[in-house]
Amino acid sequence: MFKNLLLKTILSTFFLCAVSSLAQDNEREDWIFKNSKSLSEMWELEDEYHRGTFIITSYKPIYLSVAKFSSNTNNFPVAENSNKIPEATFDLDPIEAKFQLSLKTKIFHKMFKGKMDLWMGYSQTAYWQIYNKKRSRPFRELNYQPEIIANFPVKFPFLGFETKMVGISLIHESNGQSDPISRSWNRLALHAGFERNNWQVVLKPWLRLGSKLDDNENISDFIGRAEANVVYDWGRQRFRAIARHSLRFGNKSRGSVQLNWSFPIFKNFSGHLQLFDGYGETLIDYNHRQTTFGVGVSLIN
């Protein structure tokens, strides 16, 4: 059984690497695995980048962490203000695999007299206890995030950057589990994107919706109420920092920082390192603080 699982893992990794190679070799093609180096290209903010509607393209980074280490595994996840608790500890291995898939498609182009594009996005992050033989190597957590995004191309200077877009999105995120480990929340988010030379900055504050309808009503005090996504390109290397904060003071001043580095190893084969510290690396860990470090393969930056 282990040999078959290992073989499948190796084949899956080989397939993903092959897809990554094809994606970068076909950089000018309008297809799903296209790398985008600018906000204008990624969000088709100018006519020269418009591909059409209902064409699937990449959204957030797509990567595979072959091994991710946690300094503080959450063996007994309990939601805040909930009397629903697991019957036993999870007995997790501190080392697991992680991968993220993220896609988007434009539904309408130049709505409201050419001022708005409407997009649909979907992201999924998986945490796989592949090295946990004792528990038969289960998927520990799957997080699903569909969203509807209204994006407005703009162009004006701001603090030395050029503002490229503003918009609003409706985001749902859940882990698809039942009680006592069910986690979900809905957000109405604003966003603004800025560029300057090799820098990209996207700021995204949000408002929590329906906080009394689930088992993690205090999630905003842990994962946060706003996010800053900063990207710097240095040749074929990409550095990305994602910071979230609760926008509160005192003992409610919480959040997280995630640092990513993708770099070429050989031709189109790229590596990926990720460091995370804080709350909410996964939904089930929204009120659990840990530091994680992962190493793997970057497919789409």
Notes on the protein architecture:
The protein is mainly beta. It has one domain (2-300): Outer membrane phospholipase (ompla), Chain C. It has helices at residues 2-25, 39-42, 111-114, and strands at 56-58, 62-70, 95-110, 116-128, 139-158, 161-174, 184-196, 199-209, 226-234, 237-245, 255-266, 269-279, 289-300. A twelve-stranded antiparallel β-barrel has the order 2-3-4-5-6-7-8-9-10-11-12-13. A hairpin with a 2-residue loop joins strand 9 (226-234) and strand 10. It is globular, with a radius of gyration of 20 Å. It starts with a helix and ends with a strand. The relative contact order is 0.16. Residues 1-33 have low confidence and may be disordered.
CATH class: Mainly Beta
What strand line-up does the widest sheet have?
2-3-4-5-6-7-8-9-10-11-12-13
Beta-strand share of residues = over 45%
- Helix-strand pattern, N to C? HHEEEHEEEEEEEEEE
Structural class: mainly beta
- Architecture, according to CATH? Beta Barrel
**Global outline:** globular
Count of spatially separate domains: 1
- Number of helical elements: 3
Give the distance, in angstroms, between the N- and C-terminal Cα atoms: 34 Å
The total count of strands amounts to: 13
For the biggest sheet, the summary is: 12 strands, antiparallel, barrel
Specify Rg, calculated over alpha carbons. 20 Å
Low-confidence stretches: 1-33
Mean pLDDT: 87
CATH-derived topology: Outer membrane phospholipase (ompla), Chain C
- The CATH homologous superfamily name equals Phospholipase A1
Helix content: 10-25%
